[in-house]
Amino acid sequence: MIKFLSNKNKGTSLPELLIYVAILALILVTLINMILAIGKSYGRLKSSRAIEAVGEVALEQMTREIRKALAVNAASILNISPGKLILDTTEFSLIGEAIYERANGGAFLPLTASSTAITSLIFRELSNGRTKAVKVELTAQSGEGVAFRSEKFYTTITLRGSYQNQ
Questions:
Q1: What CA–CA distances, in Å, run from 122 to 20, 72, 73, 113?
Q2: Distance between CA atoms of residues 92 and 112, nearest Å
C-alpha cells in the first residue's frame, strides 16, 4: 500500500520564523550602520582633501610671487583679516570667502576653489634689518555637519629682492 506523507514535518514553525526574522534584522541594522559610517568618513575625507588642496595651491602661488618681489607696498593691509598684500606687480586679497590674485593691474583671478571657504587671511611683514619676509596665515573651512573641517595654514617667505640688493 502507498503511504502518504504526513503534513506535520513540512514548513517552519512560528518560533523558527521569528528567530530567522530577528537574525535578518540584526544583519540589516549592522549593514546600515556600516554604510552610514562609511558615508561620514567619506565626507570628512573629502572635506580634508579640499582644504589641503586649497591651502597648498594658494600658499604655493603666494610663495612664488612673494619670493620674486623686491618690497611690500605701503598700501598693503597687514596684521588684520582680511589682509591685502600688494607687491611690485601682484596683489593678493580675500574677497568674500576666496583668495584672489591680481597681476599687473589686471582682473582678480581666484586662487581658491568654491568648495572651500577662506575665513581668515593675515599678512605680516617681518624684517631683521638686512632682509624682509612676509608671514602668511590663512584659515580654510569645508564641509557641513559631521564632515565640517577647519584648518589653519602658516608660511613665512623671504623676499629675495630684499637681500639681493644689499
A1: 62, 14, 15, 19
A2: 12
pLDDT in tens, 29-54: 999 999 999 999 998 899 899 899 99
* CA dihedral for 109, 115, 119, 121, sign (positive or negative): negative
Q: Enumerate the domain spans of the chain.
A: 12-164
Exposed / middle / buried, residue 144 (Cβ in 10 Å: 0-12, 13-18, 19+): exposed
* Whether residue 7 has pLDDT greater than 70: no
- Which amino acid is it at 63? T
Distant-in-sequence, close-in-space partners of 75: CB < 8 Å, separation ≥ 6: 84, 86
Q: How far apart are CA 75 and CA 84, in angstroms?
A: 9
